[in-house]
Design goal:
The chain is built from 8 helices and 8 strands; from the N terminus they run αααααββββαββαββα. Strand 3 and strand 4 form a beta hairpin. The protein has helices spanning 2-8, 12-53, 58-83, 88-105, 107-122, 162-167, 193-206, 241-255; strands at 130-133, 136-143, 147-151, 157-161, 170-172, 178-187, 217-223, 228-237. The strands form 2 sheets. It has a 5-stranded antiparallel beta sheet with strand order 4-3-2-1-5. A 3-stranded antiparallel beta sheet has the order 6-8-7, covered by helices on one side.
Length: 275
């Protein structure tokens, strides 16, 4: 015992006090970690339940609940280390410098992260909606923190980074209930315009997918080089847009001729003068 006292330069009583103090702090730190991690998990679950009841997007719910749990666990860990007597000032400064360096190295990734949060919070689009953004168009299949996944009509997967996506122009085709279908049908010069408009209006009225309110519009739009172009505007439910578009074009092609109407093709009149 004397040799231990000489080695440490402390009396037995002082050694006992140190051991007691360190042991007590160690037990408190372990208790803080166990209880704190349990509370952090409980807080994450409570946050998730609260957000689900609030009707938040499932992607946002998962992200925020995980974020709450992670932040609380980090704070609990720092508190437990401090309880052991470890000076955290230098550690926090080093952690801050490392975070700055990592942030500069991954600035693009952090931008995508921020964009993902903005999309999940403000909801310019949701899973299942059809959008056009960043020069790409498709149905939204998944919204992740860093990327958004679109599926094109020919089943290609498009991955868009959330940073540019959140800060760019977004066209949402399915957010509204109704959508306007625009057509341009050309008739030959000399064809009866009144007949053409009556035929087109009958086509519209006979298609139950075309809405009567707002009222359809027909008018002579452009006098082109080879045709007189009639502009047609009709409203449908979003899900009927493409079926109506293709059906109307097909019917015009098949039935215009039955009413004495001609679909013109580009032509040029050549006049020959003899000297």
């Amino acid at each position: 015992m004397k040799s231990l006292e000489n080695l440490l330069g402390m009396s037995v009583e002082e050694i006992n006090q140190v051991v007691l103090r360190v042991g007590t702090n160690l037990l408190i730190s372990i208790a803080l970690l166990v209880a704190g991690f349990w509370l952090a998990k409980l807080a994450a679950r409570s946050t998730k339940k609260m957000l689900i009841k609030g009707g938040f997007d499932i992607g946002l719910v998962s992200f925020l609940s995980s974020l709450v749990g992670t932040i609380l666990k980090v704070l609990i860990f720092v508190t437990a280390i401090s309880q052991l007597g470890v000076q955290m000032t230098s550690f926090v400064a080093l952690l801050g410098a490392a975070g700055l360096a990592i942030g500069m190295a991954f600035s693009g990734t952090l931008s995508n992260f921020a964009g993902g949060v903005m999309i999940l919070v403000f909801k310019p689009f949701k899973v299942g909606e059809v959008i056009n953004a960043q020069g790409e168009q498709g149905e939204v299949k998944e919204i992740q923190i860093f990327n958004t996944y679109l599926t094109t009509p020919d089943n290609k997967i498009i991955i868009l980074p959330n940073g540019p996506l959140a800060n760019g122009n977004i066209i949402n085709f399915t957010r509204a209930d109704n959508r306007r279908v625009d057509f341009t049908f050309g008739i030959a010069y000399g064809d009866d315009l009144k007949t053409a408009k009556e035929v087109l209006m009958n086509f519209i009225l006979e298609d139950e997918r075309i809405l009567k309110d707002p009222e359809p519009f027909l008018g002579l739009g452009v006098l082109g080089a080879s045709s007189a172009d009639i502009t047609v505007r009709a409203w449908t439910k979003v899900e009927d847009y493409w079926p109506v578009f293709f059906a109307m074009n097909e019917r015009v092609y098949n039935e215009f001729g039955k009413h004495g109407l001609n679909i013109p093709f580009p032509q040029m009149d050549v006049h020959v003068h003899q000297n």
